[in-house]
Amino acid sequence: MTDPVDNESSEANSPATPKSTNAVLDRYFKIRERGTTVAREVRGGFVTFFTMAYIVVLTPIIIGGVPGEPMNADALGNVLPMLQVSAVVALVAGVMSILFGLVANYPFGIAAGLGISSLLAVTIAPQMSWPAAMGLVVVNGIIIVILGFTGVRTAVFNAVPPELKSAIAAGIGAFIAFIGLINAGFVTRPEAAGAPPVQLGNDGSIATVPTLIFVIGVLLMGVLVVRKIPGGLLLGIIVMTIVSIIVESILHLGRAADGDGGWAMNVPKMPDGVGGLPDLSLVGKVDVFGAFTGEFPNVSVLIACVFVFTLLLSNFFDAMGTMTGLGKEGGLTDKDGNLPDIGKALVVEGTGAIVGGAASASSNTVLVESSSGIAEGARTGLANVVTGVLFLAAMFFTPLYSVIPMEAVAPALVVVGALMMGQVRDIDFSRFEFALPAFLTIVAMPFTYSIANGIGVGFISWAVMAVARGDRKSMHPLLFVVAALFIVYFARGPISNLIG
Questions:
Q1: Are 261 and 71 in contact (CB under 8 A)?
Q2: Whole-prediction pTM value?
Q3: Distance (Å, rounded) from C-alpha 487 to C-alpha 175?
Q4: Phi and psi, residue 16, nearest 5°
Q5: What is the pLDDT, as a whole number, of residue 390?
Q6: Domain spans of the chain?
Q7: Is residue 229 over pLDDT 80?
């Protein structure tokens, strides 16, 4: 892997560095063993938080609502209040990120997954109550933890061929870059009839100041990485945030939702206040068995099981793919692309679904935005502890982190995506039986906006290619099982209709 902060390599790669590292931290997190420093870990934790912090704002928009309004209401007409959702999302992200860092010792930040949050809001909650929907998330998490304890998740993780692991890492790079381009308004969906699915900016041009700031941010961070400036991504985020605050104070652009030309989400202006006590009243408002009682007319036990299956596959393989990509990008994997002690990491990650559901914060999982912290030099769980502490602080100081606009952090995602695409060098594209599954994995993730979909397409095509070349014995039997499960997963809509 190419480390964008290699100008510190003489310090980080020396077996005796760093002399000033606290002995307890060094021993617990294996800081010197992984060739890093406390400063790098802290800096990486900050960068990961900045690139993940939008989750605390976006998740309430996806699953929260305003009482009396139909948006995101459940079958009973009830909503999850947005301010309360924001508080529990920050709480669970903080607790789970710290726990993951302490137990798994990897710099993989954990927070509410947008994919499952969208699935809950659009498909599941409208057919039952929100407590029952979150109960399904808890059931899904319990199953994932059991699969982690029994070693099933680890076996599947280790059975993936190295070429497919490299494709997953590269696909995640393309995916997070696409997220950055979308969130910054560089890529938009045109409204005109007959227009292409996506376009550049507004009407094919960069017509807004926030998007221009994003473009400048990408170039600035690219230059900082090329020049090997320590903390280049963090420095870029800070600089572009300051620029954004100045621009907003002059032009008063406001949010894009309130008119053309505004900021995608957070408006970069200094807040009136600095915080207050969070409302955590949603914690514990969950009905684990509610979806299975027959209380809701449109939800039979079989339909509830289909929902759990959908959540399970999405959670299972989103996390597996993300950890694969992050591990390879951080140089934390072995020669076969496997993460040491992955079993502990998978169990803790599965616990995120249980805790997230129990707090009505949606299923929490490892987020791809953690790659930004890894690109900044993070290699241990200490970075995760820093990220988690910042999320806990965010519960009390929401106005402060809301100063940072999406256009200032999205460039980091694009730069990191470019770094992760380097994993394609480990794929032999001269062999089409490798090239096709790898290519489909890479392009399906951004095109379908889902890591799990990309993995599923890759598994299915890999199995078909293995059979076609008469090489079934070289393919782990688990991959055929997973490929069959993904076929069912992709056909879940017709299957749901068939069973009523």
A1: no
A2: 0.79
A3: 22
A4: -100, 10
A5: 95
A6: 6-270+291-498
A7: yes
pLDDT tens figures, 392-434: 998 887 656 668 888 988 898 898 888 888 889 889 999 999 9
Q: In this structure, how many other beta carbons lie within 10 angstroms of the beta carbon of residue 263?
A: 28
Which amino acid is present at 422? G
Q: Is the pLDDT of residue 10 over 50?
A: no
Q: How many CA atoms lie within 13 A of 301 on its CB side?
A: 2
Q: Is the pLDDT of residue 8 over 50?
A: no
Helix axes 406-420, 232-251, angle to 10 degrees: 150
Are 323 and 345 within 8 A, CB to CB? yes
- The answer to whether the Cα torsion of 231, 232, 235, 236 is positive or negative is negative
- What is the separation, in whole angstroms, between the first and last Cα of the chain? 50
In three-state form (DSSP H/G/I as H, E/B as E, the rest C), the secondary structure along the chain is CCCCCHHHHHHHCCCCCCCCCCHHHHHHHCCCCCCCCHHHHHHHHHHHHHHHCHHHHHHHHHHEECCCCCCCCCCCCCCEEHHHHHHHHHHHHHHHHHHHHHHHCCCCCEEECHHHHHHHHHHHHHHCCHHHHHHHHHHHHHHHHHHHHCCHHHHHHHHCCHHHHHHHHHHHHHHHHHHHHHHCCCEECCCCCCCCCCEEEECCECCCHHHHHHHHHHHHHHHHHHCCCCCHHHHHHHHHHHHHHHHHHHHCCCEHHHCCCCECCCCCCCCCCCCCCCCCCCCCCCCCCHHHCCCCCCCCHHHHHHHHHHHHHHHHHHHHHHHHHHHHHCCCCCCCCCCCCHHHHHHHHHHHHHHHHHCCCCCEEECCCHHHHHHCCCCCHHHHHHHHHHHHHHCCCHHHHCCCCHHHHHHHHHHHHHHHHHHHHHCCCCCHHHHHHHHHHHHHHHHHCCHHHHHHHHHHHHHHHHHHCCCHHHCCHHHHHHHHHHHHHHCHHHHHHHCC
352-368, pLDDT tens digit by residue? 999 999 999 999 999 98
